[in-house]
Amino acid sequence: MSLADTTMLPASSAPRMSALRVSLIGALFVAIGPVGMALYTPAMPEIVHAFGTTQGMVKMTLTLYFAGFAFAQLIAGPISDALGRRPIITAFMGIFGAASLLAALAPSIEVFLAARFLQGVGASAGIAISRAIVRDQFQGDDSSRIMNLIGIILAIAPALAPTIGGLLVTYAGWQVLFLVMTVFGALIVIVTHFGLQETVAADFHRLRLRALGRSYRELVTSRHFMYAALTIAGALGAVYTQATILPFILMGELGFTPAQFGMAMILQTGSFFLGSLAVRQLMKRHSAARLVAPGLGFIAAGGLAFVTLLWGTPTLLRIMGAIGIYSFGVAFVMPDMTTAALAPFPRIAGAASSLMGFMQMGAGLVMGSVAALFADPVLAAALLIPVMALVAGTSYIAWRRLPAPASKEETAGT
Q1: Positive or negative CA dihedral for 254, 369, 363, 187?
Q2: Exposed/middle/buried for residue 186 (C-beta within 10 Å: 0-12, 13-18, 19+)
């Protein structure tokens, strides 16, 4: 057996969780990342004044959050392959909760920046381990259905987070946001302790750097994995990029208050929610694989709608309309392409999930950093989001042209 292999618990001895339980716990794990970002974004202009700093420094708080989230995933997934899912999610959520409390009490912008980076580190385990747990127990369309249900549940948190964040900033102050995040981190620790059953057997040999290197080498040299992961990175990475740009468009350019910004963001997550519901209904008659191309069509249409922002005056309808179309398409792409990317790697599911998440967040980090170089955030959105749509579409075409895998069971979604 390869050093990169992970020993899943035998079906006869491992307690198996129901699809509903996996979906609920998985959605809670995944939600920590978007909540840590979406709950905070309405407070960004307030943070500028609170620390007497610049917009550039406050934008850096998002960049550092992305960086911590992206790079820590490369560690969180593989060590969960080696030590088990439960202890790693508990440890990382502890980091998230402690960092949230540090952010609330930060005496300076420098301490606040460090806290945001550590928040990203802590949140990183959520997305990596949730997908690995699904892959540990489910395959094919069963896996896609769970990924879809996680998406439906997940859509609720980011939909409500900016609205709640805006109201809290307006009536209670920005520090309260981070106290709420502290409580959320503690909640996940409690749910993990009482609700999550272990899905892999611990093997300390997998902590060796050579074993870790072999796992990632296997993934990055797999065209099947890389093209599927790039499809997702282009689709979802654009959503992360939008999160770094939108506060400065809606509040800076259009003059929205934090509460109004939060209400406007419901249009984004509401579109993703509706798309996820549509996918759930369509999957009763079609495989998840058949829904990817239509989803990319919506993403392309959303990308073109962003291009139109190069002309005329930006309005709420033009901006959020483009985002809504894009987000609707993302809901069609995620379930099958996530399943397809992970399917051939059951024994290194944590590493595969981590690398896929790293590519998504990395895309958001890179494009968000590039966007910060633009003086005009509308111009940044009009140029960068269509590029992400192009990456998603071309990567999917390349993935479809690959030779048929040897085992359909291992490469569900093709």
Answers
A1: negative
A2: middle
Rounded distance between C-alpha atoms, residue 407 and residue 404, angstroms: 9
Nearest to 124 by CA among 392, 409, 353: 353
pLDDT tens across 7-44, in order?
445 443 443 677 778 888 888 888 888 788 777 777 87
The structure's pTM equals 0.73
CA distance 326 to 20: 28
Instruction: Give the span between the Cα atoms of 377 and 384, in whole angstroms.
Output: 10
Give the long-range contacts of residues 272-275, CB within 8 A, separation 24 or more. Answer: 272/151, 272/155, 272/158, 272/327, 272/328, 272/330, 272/331, 273/152, 273/155, 273/156, 273/159, 273/331, 274/328, 274/331, 275/327, 275/328, 275/329, 275/330, 275/331, 275/332
The residue whose two tokens read 């009009």 is 382
- SS3 label, residue 8: strand
H helices of 138-222, where? Answer: 140-171, 175-195, 209-220
Query: pLDDT tens across 34-59, in order?
Result: 788 777 777 877 888 888 887 778 87
Establish how many alpha carbons lie within 13 A of residue 173's alpha carbon, considering only the half-sphere containing its beta carbon.
6
Confirm if 198 and 10 have CB atoms less than 8 A apart.
no
- At residue 360, the 3 state secondary structure works out as helix
What residues are paired with 8 via a beta bridge? 200
3-state secondary structure (DSSP) of residue 4: coil
Sorted by where each starts, the structural domains of the chain and their CATH numbers stand as 19-202+211-400 (1.20.1250.20)
Among 234, 249, 245, 257, residue whose Cα is nearest residue 371: 245
Cβ count near 107 (within 10 Å): 8
Among residues 49, 25, 69, the alpha carbon closest in space to that of 243 is found at 69
The answer to whether the CB of 84 falls within 8 A of the CB of 200 is: yes
Structure tokens at 72: 């820590």
| pLDDT tens by residue, 59-88 | 788 778 878 887 888 888 788 877 888 899
Looking at residue 210, its pLDDT comes to 77
Count the Cβ atoms, other than its own, within 10 Å of residue 1: 8
